[in-house]
Amino acid sequence: MDARYDFFANPVSGTFLKQLVSSARPLVESSLPASTRELVALRVSQINGCGFCVDMHTKDAVAAGETQQRLHLVAVWREATVFTDSERAALELAEEGTRLADAAGGVSDEVWATAAKHFDEDQLGALISTIAVMNALNRLNVITQRPAGDYQPGQFG
Fold first, then answer.
1. Could you tell me which residues come within 8 angstroms of residue 100 by beta carbon, excluding any fewer than 6 positions away?
2. Which of 15, 58, 64, 90 sits most deeply, having the most CB atoms within 10 A of its CB?
3. Which long-range contacts (CB under 8 A, 24 or more apart) does 23-27 make?
4. Rounded distance, CA 32 to CA 126, Å?
5. 120-134 pLDDT, tens digit each
C-alpha cells in the first residue's frame, strides 16, 4: 500500500510538515512525563484511526520502556487499572479534545478541572499542544492514507 500523496516530495507540504514536526520539540523537552505524552499520542491516534501514528507511538513507547500491557489497554483505559490518576486525566482530556464535534460544549469543565489538578501550567500547555499536534498529524496521515507498519523507533528524531 502506498500513500496517496508524498508530503516530503512537494516543497510546500514538505516544508509545512517539517515545521509542524519541529514545533513539537518543546513538548518533548517539557516536564510533561514522556510516558504520558506517548499514551496521549497513541489514544488520539486510535480515535482518529491513524494507523501510521498508532504504529509509531506504540513502537516509540516500547523503545522508551513502556509495557505492552499498558499499550494494549490504552483503548480501554477507563476499565484498566494500570494507569495513574494523572494519566487517566490526560487520556480523558485527550479524548474530549479530539472528539470536539461529538460534544456540544467541547472539553467539559469537569475534565479540565481534573487535568488542572494533576498538571502544572507548563505541563498543561504541553498536554494541550500534544493533543493539538497529534490531531493535525493524524489528519494529514489519514487523508493521504499513509500506511502503517514500517516505522522504526526514533526515525523522526
1. 106, 107
2. 90
3. 23/133, 24/129, 24/130, 24/133, 25/157, 26/126, 26/129, 27/126, 27/129, 27/130, 27/133
4. 7
5. 999 999 999 999 999
Residue 67 has phi, psi (to 5 degrees) of: -85, 150
What is the phi-psi region of residue 151: left when phi exceeds 0, alpha when psi lies from -120 to 50, beta otherwise? beta
C-beta contacts of 59-62 below 8 A and 24+ residues apart:
59/151, 59/152, 59/153, 60/153, 60/154, 61/35, 62/153
Are 16 and 149 in contact by the 8 Å Cβ rule? The answer is: no
DSSP secondary structure, 88-109, as one string: HHHHHHHHHHH-GGGSTTSS-H
Contact 64, 38 (CB under 8 A): yes
CA gap 154, 112 in Å, rounded: 31
